[in-house]
Write a structure and sequence with these properties.
mainly alpha, 2 strands
Length: 458
């Protein structure tokens, strides 16, 4: 690594805000709109404690990912590759296969049909092509993604404010304390469903790893020295460094800057990712409790949102049901864009750093973006309706990936970073908890979902 001075913070704190909003925006998808609201519609609000545990666990994971990138300018995947060259490739392949099924684009398209009609798969194909085009033409990819996710989060917050005024009932507010006074783990809904809700609240899978890439493009810490991903069509590429990352000497000035960076990065993550994710899950669950609690035959899928929208039309007015579907469609579309971005971004970083050093990272990224878009379109046009093998692979791979990279993060930051900036004991304990949680989840998921995959193969 090259030795450089640690850059100082921007003069305006607003220039720091962004990566946590992007993480929350990409993560606000099925968990916030379907999974936790569905659980609330069946058993009340007694399971919201799990959202708090899942989000706080991911907060500590995200910050250890950010710690390494703040200190070196490298992504966590590059750091893993310092132990074994192919670790990054292993995770990149896992993320790519986990996200082959274009579920968020398909769900967004389905919600649009509730308003405008039409065939969901053709609308989903158009949405995927729009995502590919947007990511191709944006001069700086992160800046475009950040704007999209800011708009999405703003719309969701606006909808929640309106929902609090017009739709969330007094019964829901009275029920809310039961998540603390009478917490429950309602296994009657399916153990895999409950555990999935717990561990994937907020984000999950490969998304957390992309915190490295997003804060680097936001110019956090030593990431300021690394070129950002730009469009090969409209952007201007900066010269890439000969070496993968940087280090700073622990001088008094550098350590003072480090403490400021670390404090602000933690505050940004708490005030955006943690707060937005948790408040959204709680209030969307309360909305579902207010509207469809006790309604029999509800499906744990996007069809659940159709029933909830119709109920909102009855309780508040036709305009509110349409607003609910529209906000949901925009939210799921923005999540789909974020998933295509982080899947391709992680893989491009790995390929550029370890295998294809002569190629432009931007061009590798766009080849991967369009590869994912074309595969998604092919799956949809072939008539697959949530193909079981891809969903099973996604469920198994997501938990296993988090288990593996939690271990590697613990080793990376304890062994590679200087003593002065290594994680403290309570953060080491938080990562150890994440290893245990995701280890149990991945083992149970492989055990349960493996039977389904074997049945499909037969």
């Amino acid at each position: 690594m090259t030795v450089r001075e640690l850059p100082d913070l921007p003069s305006s704190p607003w220039r720091i805000i962004g990566p946590g909003v992007v993480a929350a925006g990409v993560g606000l998808a099925s968990g916030e709109f379907i999974l936790f609201p569905y659980i609330a519609s069946q058993v009340g609000l007694v399971f919201l404690w799990a959202a708090a545990i899942g989000i706080i666990t991911q907060y500590f994971i995200n910050m250890e990912i950010e710690r390494y990138t703040l200190a070196t300018g490298e992504t966590a995947l590059t750091g893993f590759s310092r132990f074994w060259r192919h670790w990054g490739l292993v995770f990149a392949i896992m993320v790519y296969f986990a996200n082959l099924w274009p579920g968020w684009a398909s769900s967004s398209a389905t919600m649009l049909t509730y308003i405008f009609g039409g065939e969901p798969k053709f609308i989903a194909v158009v949405l995927l092509l729009l995502i590919g085009t947007t990511l191709t033409l944006a001069p700086v990819i992160y800046s475009a993604l950040e704007r999209v996710e800011f708009v999405k989060v703003g719309l969701v917050v606006l909808f929640i404010v309106v929902a609090v005024v017009f739709a969330i009932s007094a019964d829901a507010w009275r029920e809310l304390p039961t998540t603390v006074t009478s917490p429950d783990f309602p296994t009657e809904l399916g153990f895999a469903l409950m555990l999935s809700a717990l561990v994937f609240a907020g984000a999950g899978g490969g998304q957390n790893l992309c915190q490295s890439n997003w804060i680097r493009d936001k110019r956090y810490g030593m990431g300021a020295y690394v070129p950002r991903l730009v469009s090969p069509v409209t952007g201007h590429e900066e010269a890439a460094p000969d070496r993968a990352g940087y280090v700073f000497e622990p001088t008094p000035d550098n350590m003072a800057r480090w403490r400021r960076w670390w404090k602000v990065a933690n505050q940004e993550q708490l005030a955006t990712f943690v707060l937005i994710s948790f408040v959204t899950i709680v209030l969307m669950s309360m909305l579902a409790y207010s509207t469809v609690y006790g309604v029999p035959g509800l499906a744990n899928s996007v069809a659940f949102l159709e029933v909830e929208g119709e109920r909102l039309k009855e309780l508040v007015g036709p305009w509110f049901g349409v607003l609910f579907w529209l906000i949901g469609a925009v939210s799921l579309f923005a999540a789909a864009m974020g998933i295509v971005d982080y899947t391709s971004r992680l893989a491009a970083d790995v390929l550029k750093t370890s295998y294809l050093r002569r190629f432009s990272e931007s061009r590798i990224y766009f080849a991967l973006v369009w590869g994912l878009v074309v595969l998604g379109c092919a799956i949809l046009l072939a008539g697959f309706d949530q193909p079981l093998p891809l969903l099973v692979i996604s469920a198994c791979v997501g938990g296993l990936m988090m288990f593996m990279y939690s271990i590697l993060l613990l080793v990376l930051n304890r062994r590679v970073l200087p003593d002065e900036i290594r994680p403290r004991a309570y953060r080491v304990a938080a990562l150890a908890w994440a290893v245990a949680l995701f280890g149990v989840f991945s083992a149970l998921t492989v055990w349960q979902q493996g039977d389904r995959l074997l049945e499909w193969l037969r």
